[in-house]
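Running this now, will post back.
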Amino acid sequence: MRLSHRQVAGWIISISVLFGVLLAAPVNWMHPSVEVSGCSMYPALEPGEIVILEPTSTSDLSKGDIVAFRAIGTLVIHRVVEKRNRTVGTKGDLARKQFWFEQRITDSQILGRKLFSIPLPWNPDRQCRTSPPL
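Update: finished.
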């Protein structure tokens, strides 16, 4: 039986995804993870990527860190651009300016700092490459 190129590609993708899940499973038990759903951090993070977080506080964060936090009733993953005594300010890489809800992030809002991310072997949302900055 001879397999077509499409079938071989499907097997390779399936095995790669399974391998990635098996590798990430132990990490997920020790660290929380979140899925990227928007384009605000493109090209650093793309929609569908899984970001593994490490627990942190505002005092441990530095400018340039990528942090996940809760604000305005939703989950946000943005880069730290300002550090103050007990708060940090963040901004999406594609954003022209900082939004009001990301100017003073406190410890109680922070879910964690990006430890590493698991990219998809394909990008289901190609609009990030053509979207204008926010």
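The radius of gyration is 17 Å. More later if anyone needs it.
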